[in-house]
Amino acid sequence: MRSVLGQPGGPRLVVGCVGIVVTGLLVAFVTLMHGATWSTPGETLAGLLGHGEQTFVITRWRAPQVSAALVFGAALGLSGAVFQNLTRNPLGSPDIIGLEASAFTGALVVTACLSGTAAQVATGSVVAGLAAAVVVYALARKGGFSGMRLVVIGIAVNAMVTATNQWLVIRADLEVAMATTAWSAGSLNGTDWHDVRLPFALIAALAVGLALSARTMHQAALGDDLATTSGVRLGPHRLALVVLGVGCTATVTAVAGPISFVALAAPQIGRRITGSAGVPLLPAALTGALLLAASDLLAQTLTRPVPLPVGMITTAVGGAYLIWLLVMEVRKR
């Protein structure tokens, strides 16, 4: 029987996913214990259930940030899986091919020009991310679609967009420049329920869309000829996946800023844990949630009492992962 992943399920897939979920919940619970002082496991559990003196602190201060780490990490993992399936390349990730930086450009422009509300920033992020995706995809289609060409073009676009972002920050007013520079590091610090209600709803809708597209996505990942003969309309299929993938990345960027390397690493780590042949969505989402939750816990504890932006941790860990991935790709050849 086929799972919602679009691939046959198996014991290792189930065991791997359960293991990731249990580990992620343990990390989340430990993070809920962390604050100016550590709460005991009993106090934390009582607070979650609405009892004890720690209830307000845990449910109103700590829980929104922990929930954001899990949900945003899952969204980044989904986005990474989408683009790695589209490109058939482990380097096909929104932060590598310029989509995350472009979403940040949209947020910067809206913030600098309109002093944007949360809705305006989110809209600007999505529009700019989609515009970059259209440019990269259109250039990659010339002479026949190629995943490797898309990755190379995306890296070039990423470099240009990053330079544009730096220029926008330099030209902005001092207050805007200071705020956007701090935001560009990617941070979940200070997140509350008001910040995440709409993003959570958007990510849930995007995840449903991806679940419905999963089977077709894995058919297309087997090759254009095979996908076409099995009835897949590649053009509309790829466009829909690009919109859904960019939507996941842009939603996270609009709230937390660009958080790098989770989308790159989560799909491949999830694939190896579950022994999947392709790049399935569910392991990628679960691994992304675990990676971002663990990174946020490190960001809060390494430099107590002043927490680091979580993007600094994911960048450091992701850089090491990228070096390892490149070495493995070279050895295959």
How would you portray this structure in words?
This protein has one domain (11-332): ABC transporter involved in vitamin B12 uptake, BtuC (Orthogonal Bundle), CATH 1.10.3470. It is 76% helix and 0% strand. It contains 13 helices and no strands. The protein has helices spanning 11-33, 41-48, 55-87, 99-114, 118-141, 147-171, 174-183, 193-220, 224-229, 234-256, 262-274, 281-301, 310-332. Helix 4 packs antiparallel against helix 5, helix 5 (118-141) packs antiparallel against helix 10 and helix 12 (281-301) packs across helix 13 (310-332). The longest helix is centred in the first third of the chain and has 33 residues, at 55-87. It is globular, with a radius of gyration of 20 Å. It starts with 10 loop residues before the first helix and ends with a helix. 47% of the residues are buried. Residues 1-6 have low confidence and may be disordered. The chain crosses the membrane at residues 12-33, 66-84, 96-115, 121-140, 238-266, 273-294, 306-327. Belongs to the binding-protein-dependent transport system permease family. FecCD subfamily.
